[in-house]
Amino acid sequence: MPGDAKIIDGTAVGKAMRAELAAEIAALKGRGVTPGLAVVLIGENPASQVYVRMKGKACQEAGLYHETLKLPKETTEGNLLGLIERLNADHKIHGILVQLPLPPQINAQRVLHRIDPAKDVDGFHPENVGKVSIGDASGFRPATPYGVQQLLIRSGVETTGRHAVVLGRSNIVGRPMAALLLQDGPGGNATVTVCHSRTRDIGGITRQADILIVAIGKPEFVTGEMIKPGGVVIDVGVNRVEDPSLKQGYRLVGDVRFAEAKRVAGAITPVPGGVGPMTITMLLYNTVQAARQWSAP
Ligand code: GUN
Question: How far apart are the first and last CA of the chain?
Answer without folding.
Answer: 51
